[in-house]
Amino acid sequence: MSVAVAAGRQAWRQLARNTGTSAAIRRTIFSLPKSQHSPFRPAFNTTSKALPRFSQPQYRSYSSGGSSGGGTQVKFWPFVMVLAAGSAGWVLLINRQKTMPPNPQATTTITKPTPAFSPAHVTVLFVLGGPGAGKGTQCANLVSDFKFHHLSAGDLLRAEQERPGSQYGQLIKDCIKDGAIVPMEVTVALLENAMADAIARSGSRKARFLIDGFPRKMDQAFEFEKVVCPAKLVLFFDCPEEVMEGRLLERGKTSGRADDNAESIRKRFRTFIETSMPVVEYYDKEGKVVKVDATPKPTEVYEDVKRKLLEKLGENF
Ligand SMILES: Nc1ncnc2c1ncn2[C@@H]1O[C@H](COP(=O)(O)OP(=O)(O)O)[C@@H](O)[C@H]1O
Ligand SMILES: O=c1ccn([C@@H]2O[C@H](COP(=O)(O)OP(=O)(O)O)[C@@H](O)[C@H]2O)c(=O)[nH]1
């Protein structure tokens, strides 16, 4: 290898003397930017996003016959030496890389999308429970005691619905009125953006989030954990329908919400039982649910929430 490299170097100098600087030669021989000459590129070219392979047709073709025609002083044996030395080095490098472990970043992108936030820095708690169970009320308490960022999926959707020019405004409006679930792409994107904003504003990459009223459907749960952040646990507020109905009708007197009326409430209850309870059951099987009785008065519910969360997560979660 060293003999070949030395011969190549010698040939390179000879060529430079004959036709100008080595940089000029490089530009003449390879009409490619320098970065595309990396011998490592083919080994890492495993994803569809990778740059195109360094391919032979991009070389100009040279042959020893060229020296006889133009009356030039350039000798062509140095080219042969350079190519021979380069090819030998190339083969050695390729063989060495076959024995190297794969680049984990290069392979991760094709097999599984990386979540935007790492659970090592970001703690996510999903907060679930039927409509009117008291999720928002208890989240407010947790925010003041544990410095959580509180993100209500319903609030984010309502804000998007009101945003001038939103292409999802009408869709969100119709879903909310009918107690149906907005397509997950919209909600997951709103949550991810809101998390990124909160983290940027806090100036620290460590953060705790209460994701309130989400995920309400299995596809949302899978998508969020895959592309945004795996969740640590689910805080589930258990409340009978008749209690929730009374609270919602009372809230409807002042909330101004289009869905706090008897007809929408009925539809929301049905969606909750059919679509959202399976999410709670799924996480329960994973041992990730902290269940709290939501029927006592708010202060008592909160005492229970605090005690059970600390029991599950420890003081320094
Ligand atoms: N434990 C409770 N007892 C009585 N009323 C409650 C309790 N928790 C919440 N509320 C009231 O019930 C309504 C629904 O609570 P909210 O926190 O908005 O529920 P959710 O976010 O689950 O829809 C609100 O008007 C709230 O003040
Ligand atoms: O992930 C979500 C969360 C909420 N919603 C919609 O927003 C409504 C209100 O949800 P919110 O959590 O604000 O209120 P809740 O029903 O819990 O009182 C729901 O009925 C759904 O129509 C949704 O589509 N996807």
Automatic annotation (TrEMBL):
<dbReference type="InterPro" id="IPR000850">
    <property type="entry name" value="Adenylat/UMP-CMP_kin"/>
</dbReference>
<feature type="binding site">
    <location>
        <position position="268"/>
    </location>
    <ligand>
        <name>a ribonucleoside 5'-phosphate</name>
    </ligand>
</feature>
<comment type="similarity">
    <text>Belongs to the adenylate kinase family. UMP-CMP kinase subfamily.</text>
</comment>
<feature type="region of interest" description="NMPbind">
    <location>
        <begin position="152"/>
        <end position="182"/>
    </location>
</feature>
<keyword id="KW-0418">Kinase</keyword>
<dbReference type="GO" id="GO:0005634">
    <property type="term" value="C:nucleus"/>
</dbReference>
<dbReference type="GO" id="GO:0016776">
    <property type="term" value="F:phosphotransferase activity, phosphate group as acceptor"/>
</dbReference>
<keyword id="KW-0067">ATP-binding</keyword>
<dbReference type="Pfam" id="PF00406">
    <property type="entry name" value="ADK"/>
</dbReference>
<feature type="binding site">
    <location>
        <begin position="180"/>
        <end position="182"/>
    </location>
    <ligand>
        <name>a ribonucleoside 5'-phosphate</name>
    </ligand>
</feature>
<feature type="binding site">
    <location>
        <position position="296"/>
    </location>
    <ligand>
        <name>ATP</name>
    </ligand>
</feature>
<dbReference type="GO" id="GO:0019205">
    <property type="term" value="F:nucleobase-containing compound kinase activity"/>
</dbReference>
<dbReference type="GO" id="GO:0005524">
    <property type="term" value="F:ATP binding"/>
</dbReference>
<feature type="region of interest" description="LID">
    <location>
        <begin position="250"/>
        <end position="260"/>
    </location>
</feature>
<feature type="binding site">
    <location>
        <position position="220"/>
    </location>
    <ligand>
        <name>a ribonucleoside 5'-phosphate</name>
    </ligand>
</feature>
<protein>
    <recommendedName>
        <fullName>Uridylate kinase</fullName>
        <ecNumber>2.7.4.14</ecNumber>
    </recommendedName>
</protein>
<feature type="binding site">
    <location>
        <position position="158"/>
    </location>
    <ligand>
        <name>a ribonucleoside 5'-phosphate</name>
    </ligand>
</feature>
<keyword id="KW-0539">Nucleus</keyword>
<feature type="binding site">
    <location>
        <position position="251"/>
    </location>
    <ligand>
        <name>ATP</name>
    </ligand>
</feature>
<keyword id="KW-0808">Transferase</keyword>
<dbReference type="GO" id="GO:0009123">
    <property type="term" value="P:nucleoside monophosphate metabolic process"/>
</dbReference>
<feature type="binding site">
    <location>
        <begin position="213"/>
        <end position="216"/>
    </location>
    <ligand>
        <name>a ribonucleoside 5'-phosphate</name>
    </ligand>
</feature>
<comment type="function">
    <text>Catalyzes the phosphorylation of pyrimidine nucleoside monophosphates at the expense of ATP. Plays an important role in de novo pyrimidine nucleotide biosynthesis. Has preference for UMP and dUMP as phosphate acceptors, but can also use CMP, dCMP and AMP.</text>
</comment>
<dbReference type="InterPro" id="IPR006266">
    <property type="entry name" value="UMP_CMP_kinase"/>
</dbReference>
<dbReference type="GO" id="GO:0005737">
    <property type="term" value="C:cytoplasm"/>
</dbReference>
<feature type="binding site">
    <location>
        <begin position="132"/>
        <end position="137"/>
    </location>
    <ligand>
        <name>ATP</name>
    </ligand>
</feature>
<keyword id="KW-0963">Cytoplasm</keyword>
<dbReference type="InterPro" id="IPR033690">
    <property type="entry name" value="Adenylat_kinase_CS"/>
</dbReference>
<keyword id="KW-0547">Nucleotide-binding</keyword>
<comment type="subunit">
    <text>Monomer.</text>
</comment>
<keyword id="KW-0665">Pyrimidine biosynthesis</keyword>
<dbReference type="GO" id="GO:0006207">
    <property type="term" value="P:'de novo' pyrimidine nucleobase biosynthetic process"/>
</dbReference>
<dbReference type="GO" id="GO:0006221">
    <property type="term" value="P:pyrimidine nucleotide biosynthetic process"/>
</dbReference>
<feature type="binding site">
    <location>
        <position position="257"/>
    </location>
    <ligand>
        <name>a ribonucleoside 5'-phosphate</name>
    </ligand>
</feature>
<dbReference type="InterPro" id="IPR027417">
    <property type="entry name" value="P-loop_NTPase"/>
</dbReference>
